[in-house]
Design brief:
two-stranded antiparallel ribbon; 148 residues; 2 helices; 22% helix; alpha/beta; D-tyrosyl-trna(Tyr) Deacylase, Chain: A
């Protein structure tokens, strides 16, 4: 699993000109599902994201979690996080999970986020999405196999 997490002041996702998900202060999370991922991996990543202390406290230190600031989540599926650019100039995505498996695990990620935070907005799996955001910082973290 690979996640790109951006702390945002606001973010939204549009499909075919219609806004299908929007948040205020919180986390915009791009979610990539790999060949070897399963529900246990998804639970581990969701737990890490929700508990990460990456919001500023009253002293300006990154010491608060998403729940501490009543933040929101917008999660967008993005298989391109598994781009392999080692050969040539055209990336391959052979390490990304097949669409059925990826969608099931993406939905499971959303379910966990909703259970633990009260809500989570999302994009549309497999759709051509337009994502709009205002970074807060900017503050971006990449979580993958070796980062925790």
């Amino acid at each position: 699993m690979r996640l790109v997490i951006q702390r945002v002041k606001q973010a939204s996702v549009t499909v075919d000109g219609n806004c299908i998900g929007a948040i205020g202060k919180g986390l915009l999370i791009f979610v990539g599902i790999g060949l070897e991922d399963d529900e246990q991996v998804v639970e581990k990543y969701a737990d890490k994201v929700i508990k990460m202390r990456i919001f500023d406290d009253n002293d300006g230190k990154t010491n608060l979690s998403l729940s501490d600031v009543q933040g929101e989540i917008l999660a967008i599926s993005q298989f391109t996080l598994y781009a392999d650019c080692k050969k040539g100039n055209r990336p391959n995505f052979l390490q990304a999970a097949a669409p059925d498996k990826a969608n099931a695990l993406y939905q499971y990620f959303l379910e966990i986020c909703k259970q633990r935070t009260g809500s989570a907005e999302c994009g549309e799996f497999g759709a051509d999405m337009k994502v709009d955001l205002i970074n807060d910082g900017p503050f971006t973290i990449v979580l993958n196999e070796g980062s925790f």
